[in-house]
Amino acid sequence: MDNNHHHHHQFQKMQSYMEALEEEKRKIQVFQRELPLCLELVNQAIETCRQQLSGTTTENMQGGQSQCSDQTSTDGPVLEEFIPIKRICSASDDEEEEEGDEQHSHKKSKSDGAADKKKSDWLRSAQLWNQTTPGPTLQQEATPRRVSVVEVTRNGGAFQPFLRENKIPVKTSTSHDSDRQNKNNQSLIELHSPVPVTATSSTADTTTANGNGNGTRKEEKEGQTQRKQRRCWSPELHRRFLQSLQQLGGPHVATPKQIRELMKVDGLTNDEVKSHLQKYRLHTRRPSPTQHGGNSQAPQFVVVGGIWVPPPEYATVAASTTTTASGEAARPSPSSAGVYAPLAIAAAPQQRNPSKDHSPSHSEGRGSHSAGDAHSKSPSTSSSTHTATSSPVD
DNA sequence: AAATGAATAT
DNA sequence: AATATTCATT
């Protein structure tokens, strides 16, 4: 009766294998365009597997000869060697912090060992961040492929999902959701030649090292002041940007260099950050120039202790400000909270390495954290003897 | 010289 | 509108 056991064993293995394959397929499917053959292979494997499974108990099954053109002889158990069906995915990286990004609503408790799937980690490996397929004008078209999955210095995976999605005019201020929603972007990804690569042909095998240490761009030789490739601020990049921003205490005190350093994105230059910051600052200010003039009916904000707060609750704000401001400052919202507080004013220059060390302070979701621990000082002291009242005059 | 912010330029 | 580049200041 050993045979029985054996078969049984085989059977189970097969099943696991199948499952693994299926999952693999699911992953790959997203990249259909880029990895058509992969998909094909997996499909074949699955097919083969299925056949074997259906082959029932009958002794050695060897139906492998039908499809897989060159399956290397018939060894039924070819599969055995393939995969250690396991999730060894030691996702040791990932340094997401704060931001209620992940929706922990995993109710998918699949019967038993189905294991949990956390896809989305796998697609972090792509680099892609530049290049927006410029016009057919000039531009150096080099580097055919070489997608180099790099990530050498984890650039945070700033990518440009090219989901077509019509941009319905329902935008309106919005960058709000778009960021969060982007998690949706299960769609395809543009893998192309992200790295500048010294045009000029040949060799160039730069292999990773994309560090661009060389004077890739710029005039290299006099004369042509080629404009730099426009850095594309993908949501990911922007996210980093915002994060750094708040660690530094708001857009008005953060300096480009600091930001750049905090962002830890290699290849990112000061100027790029500077530029972005400038835009951000502008865009963040008085976003609604529409109808200005006499709406002095209800003062939108009041200065308390040096920070702008909405009138109705500045009693409590004092402390929550940190949370609110820093948490939301990111999202300049016209009507509600377009304020950022120069936090970091009183507190020591809290500069934590984005790598570790994170006090579990706010893991808040959307709700509200109303005063948890806050009171320290009394704002009432009319802090700025003269500051108040005088609204910023332009 | 290098960093920064504002003004331009594309 | 979004980036890049130039300009003036420190």
TrEMBL record:
Q: Where is the HTH myb-type domain?
A: 225-285
Regions of biased composition (Acidic residues) lie at 92-101
Compositional bias ranges of the Polar residues kind = 57-75
Arranged from A to Z, the UniProt key words for this protein are: DNA-binding, Nucleus, Transcription, Transcription regulation
- Which GO molecular-function terms appear in the entry? DNA binding
Compositional bias, Basic and acidic residues, is annotated for 110-119, 164-182, 216-225, 354-376
Question: Pfam families given for it?
Answer: HHO5_N, Myb_DNA-binding
Q: What is this protein called?
A: HTH myb-type domain-containing protein
